[in-house]
Write a structure and sequence with these properties.
Elements (H helix, E strand, L loop, with lengths): L7 E3 L4 H27 L4 H15 L1 H13 L1 E3 L3 E4 L2 E4 L15 E2 L11 E6 L5 E6 L2 H11 L7
Parallel strand pairs: 5-7
Antiparallel strand pairs: 1-2, 2-3, 3-4, 6-7
Keywords: Membrane, Transmembrane, Transmembrane helix
Protein name: PH domain-containing protein
């Protein structure tokens, strides 16, 4: 297999769902709210739109931002030579399925500050006694794919 052959890929988050729905709801609410005023006067109250628009998106875009963060920091791409998680990239050659007992907490890959709700954590070892933590949606599938690409001599 070449390094371009993807063994495992995981892309959490549903950006279109969480960014598209608030825009659609906002448009429907604005038309419904101001239709009577617009049909009588022919004017749209811009002051109300300028206040309600940002207020609406300050509250209702939070799920979209969480979804974007999951997509940015927890996307996993595993090839025979490289494991990419978010912004981090590791060579597969130094990885082991067993997590060494180094006494240090594992390093969360991807660049995020924690494991998001709805995802599970998987801990595995690296070269030099390093421990890594990855947030995944399907831990069994990820570990099976990682076991396929790790060389048998480093598995244990």
């Amino acid at each position: 297999m070449s390094d371009t052959d993807v063994v495992y890929r995981e892309r959490p988050g549903k950006l279109k769902l969480w960014f598209g729905i608030p825009w659609a709801i906002w448009a429907v609410v604005m038309v419904w709210s101001f239709w009577d005023h617009w049909s009588r006067t022919g004017e749209v109250p811009l002051d109300a739109l300028l206040v309600l628009g940002p207020l609406f998106f300050a509250v209702f875009s939070i799920p979209g931002l969480v979804s974007y963060s999951k997509r940015r920091y927890h996307t996993i791409t595993l090839t025979p030579q490289t494991l990419r998680v978010g912004r981090d990239s590791l060579p597969v050659a130094g990885l082991t399925l067993e997590s060494p007992d180094s006494g240090r907490p594992p390093r969360l890959l991807g660049g995020a500050s924690g494991v998001p709700m709805g995802m599970r954590e998987v801990v595995f070892g690296g070269s030099g006694g390093e421990r890594y933590l990855v947030a995944v949606l399907d831990p069994d599938a990820f570990l099976a794919a990682l076991g396929r690409v790790i060389s048998p001599s480093s598995q244990g």
